[in-house]
Amino acid sequence: MAALGCDAPGMKTFDVLIVGGGHGGGAAAAALRQHGFTGSLAIVSDEPHPPYERPPLSKEYLAGEKTFERLLLRPESYWSERGVELILGLRVTAVDAERRRVVLNSGDVLGYGKLVWAAGGAPRRLTCAGGDLAGVHCIRTRRDVDRLKAELLGAQRVVVAGGGYIGLEAAAVLTKFGKRVTLLEAFERVLARVGGEPLSRFYEAEHRAQGVEVRLGVRIDAVVEREGRASGVRLADGETIPADLVVVGVGITPAVEPLLAAGAAGGDGVQVDGQCRTSLPGVYAIGDCARHANAYAGGAEIRLESVQNANDQAVIAAKAILGGGDVYKAVPWFWSNQYDLRLQTVGLSLGYDEIVLRGDPAARAFSLVYLRAGRVIALDCVNAAKDYVQGKALVADGRRIAPELLADPSQPLKALAA
To answer: Is the pTM value of this prediction over 0.85?
Structure first.
């Protein structure tokens, strides 16, 4: 912290400094320019690439269906043409909110008028013995996936730890590659944190039908080593599952340590208000690392790890910096591609007390409508794009609709929303 307190002759200062080169950081810079901001603007990213999308990494990019260039949020020329300086391959290690400065891991100091923290998070890794062995992979950055792809050719058996979106998407792609995949989930069902049991059981059955061995309610005791590399995982009950590679998808840890050390309120993420302002003067936070009171979670403070959240909070923060008074209240949405299944979710199913099945899971096209006290709070739509599009209005309004009407797929949801 000493570097923050000293004079820095020639220190570069920006009117707005954005930390993070993911969707949130890129969207914040674009929104500032689109809404008329003419001051100096820079993005600091610890990756060597211009801002790019993360969700396709575990889907189309891992599968080789999209090149990295197609993941870029904007063409590389966009940033220079709009006067956005990209400071790449460097990480912010400390923040001095009083002097409005940050320190980079290079030792350089940057000044700012406003700071937008869009640093996202780091993938949680296995904390057991062997969790850091060669052959154990996470999926968060292009570098992560490139490393995994480079080792796939010589691998036949893969253990995937985690039955959330990342784990299931990776399992689907690896199965397409002809790998023998075992998926391990500590809970008694996959997608336990994000959906109801009918959704979990449907996806468990689909993955098993594709050849994935899905193991539920299991815990990893250690990653087994052979010649310095992972050769399998040992479960808490003593069973060892052989593996040439281990892919870990067990969530992220929000990257907020420098802000918390500077005095920002928070813990699991940094707390922000309705305009994405932290408790530090002139400092905003958006995206995966921003903990906020969400209207669609009953007002509870949550973090949302989604493109939607990063995008919408970026616009709110940009408008606030420009003096606007808009408050964040966007309907959450998510998606996941696995095999030929497209899952689209709108709303948050937290605290639901009833699930209505709409359509037939056996036909591989259906929706689950989540109710709380009779009101529609969320939908999970599997190969049911119309329900997803039309159901957003029901979630936004918190409509009370008779379950028997919701369950009838011959009744368009837009008619029920009228």
So the answer is: yes
